[in-house]
Amino acid sequence: MAAASNMVREITSVEDFEQFITTSNGSVIALNFWAPWAAPCAQMNVVFEELSTRYPSVKFAKIEAEELADISESFDVSAVPFFVILKSNKVLARISGGNAPELTAALNQYSSATSLPPAQPVAPPVPASAPQVEEDLETRLGNLVKAAPVMLFMKGTPAAPQCGFSRTLVGLLRERGVRYGFFNILADDEVRQGLKEYSDWPTFPQVYVKGELVGGLDIVREMIDNGEWDDVLKDAGVEAPVASSA
């Protein structure tokens, strides 16, 4: 695990999280849900630490999303990085993805104290005129499908799948010992609808390897059965794990 700064508390257990919330004494809290395999998290971890020095009235904490899945699911974390701003157990804002300007704006809005003068902006300023939605979504989807070497777009989360196909595919990946990233498409209708067109694949779940669509449940299952799955991982430069004997 990456170490947190002195201003950012690294949550290591559910009990630790509960103690952190209890001792925050009604302060505004910023939570950073991250994963070591997701490249955008590395950049946003730096941003998060920088922001913790600018907003001394806010309590900052990092949570490794997959290691503490119960906490992640309680906040409907659908992808990483994912940020939650809350106060007195009330969620004030959710920010999905590496959107530093949006995170900064939320802290500006909900912080009870004026931030310290910034020495450097943590990200380029957001243009006053919004860019075209289609370009924004295309870029976002392109980043999402490459967020991890193996990405699963599913209904629900691996711990709580919301359809039988997603549940079966999660089981197959678990049996193969595959470490993968996931995105809960039920939590973001823009991604859910946009990915159908982006991938030219109308159903879920969908599996991407190194940003390239492999297919859904039937295709992945067939590839595992005939031995092609490990070859796909190898050709993409992803280390093929040893199948679980369980």
TrEMBL record:
The keyword Repeat does not apply. GO terms for biological process: intracellular iron ion homeostasis. GO terms for cellular component: cytosol; nucleus. CDD domains: GRX_PICOT_like, TRX_PICOT. Coiled coil: none annotated. It holds the Pfam family Glutaredoxin. Keywords: Iron, Iron-sulfur, Metal-binding. Residues 1-112 form the Thioredoxin domain. One of its GO terms (molecular function) is 2 iron, 2 sulfur cluster binding. Monothiol glutaredoxin involved in the biogenesis of iron-sulfur clusters. Binds one iron-sulfur cluster per dimer. The iron-sulfur cluster is bound between subunits, and is complexed by a bound glutathione and a cysteine residue from each subunit. Belongs to the glutaredoxin family. Monothiol subfamily. This is Thioredoxin domain-containing protein.
